[in-house]
UniProtKB/TrEMBL annotation:
PANTHER family (alphabetical): BLL6449 PROTEIN (PTHR34598), OXIDOREDUCTASE AN1597 (PTHR34598:SF3)
Parts forming coiled coils: none
Source species taxonomy: Eukaryota, Fungi, Dikarya, Ascomycota, Pezizomycotina
Organism: Trichoderma semiorbis
Protein name: CmcJ-like methyltransferase
GO terms of molecular function: oxidoreductase activity
Family (UniProt): Belongs to the asaB hydroxylase/desaturase family.
Length: 286
């Protein structure tokens, strides 16, 4: 696939992305961050990250059908789902399983290579008016994530399942599986802090990706973060509707497939409602 079809009339976006800086500290210390308050702990750090803020050009999705999960790390599904913004924001625990079943059915229809798909996580985000100036820890609803990342590493994929399905390790140990996300806005059309995807074919896995410990209140996950590379090509869907689902692979159990590195980006032309979004994470067995 080539990307020479972009034209001026397609409204490319000039913005910035907060990459992870290439810091010498990583020669002796693994990157980490936490969403647990640590101010009360002497000499504790919430992270050992430094920002590498870069000006980038983000290109609009012109033809959603041209993107392939296996090649680019992400793709799109056009579908109507039943989860409303009101229910997601006020009754998530009560309605998320029905939404999971819808997502599982859509994925089975689109990706016949998967023999079994099970959703296990649902995250709802509603941007605060003062984000990103003030990012609150453990807010009732999560905020957009500015750092380009993949939600889990290959090791983190196993840690995810250990947490989501305790005592059932025999069902995934040694198996070939992917951890997929399905992301969409809860209200549309959305242009406020849209989700941007990095084309996997423009990422150098040997130099651009840094594995990171994500410290939670009850466990330690492992995800992956991006360092800057001028070859990266970023894309977003302008005026994304609630029926425009982005599907991306966070990681696979073998560590050999395309990953969907992503982040929320500031859109200088946004003039609509503040972003509300929902994302489901699932395990898909081959």
């Amino acid at each position: 696939m080539t990307h020479n079809f972009i034209c001026l009339s397609c409204s490319i976006m000039e913005t910035s992305i907060s990459y992870l800086a290439q810091d010498p500290i990583f020669e002796w210390e693994k990157p980490f961050d936490t969403d647990v308050p640590v101010d009360h702990i002497p000499r504790a750090r919430a992270a050992n990250h430094k920002n590498d803020e870069r000006e980038v050009t983000v290109f609009p999705i012109i033809d959603a059908t041209q993107w392939d999960l296996e090649k680019h790390g992400f793709c799109f599904i056009k579908a109507t789902t039943g989860l409303t913004a009101e229910d997601a924001l006020t009754r998530k625990e009560e309605v998320q399983k029905d939404y999971w079943y819808e997502i599982e059915a859509l994925l089975h229809q689109r990706f016949p290579q998967y023999s079994r798909i099970e959703c296990y996580d649902c995250t709802v985000r509603k941007r605060d008016p003062d984000f990103p100036a003030n990012i609150r820890l453990y807010a009732k609803v999560e905020q957009p994530a500015r750092r380009p990342h993949s939600d889990c590493s290959p090791r983190g994929a196993h840690l995810n399942l250990d947490h989501a399905f305790p005592g059932q390790q025999e069902f995934w140990q040694g198996k070939d599986f992917d951890i997929l996300n399905v992301w969409r806005p809860l209200r549309g059309p959305n242009n406020d802090w849209p989700l941007a995807m990095c084309d996997w074919t423009t990422i150098n896995p040997l130099t651009d990706i840094r594995v990171n410990d994500a410290i939670r209140r009850d466990r330690v996950d492992e995800n992956a973060i991006l360092h800057y590379n001028e070859k990266h090509r970023w894309y977003f869907m302008r005026d994304q509707s609630v029926e425009d689902l982005i599907v991306f692979r966070n990681a696979d159990s073998m560590g050999k497939r395309a990953q969907g590195f992503h982040c929320a980006i500031f859109n200088p032309e946004a003039n609509g409602q503040l972003r509300e979004s929902v994302e489901v994470r699932c395990v898909a067995f081959r």
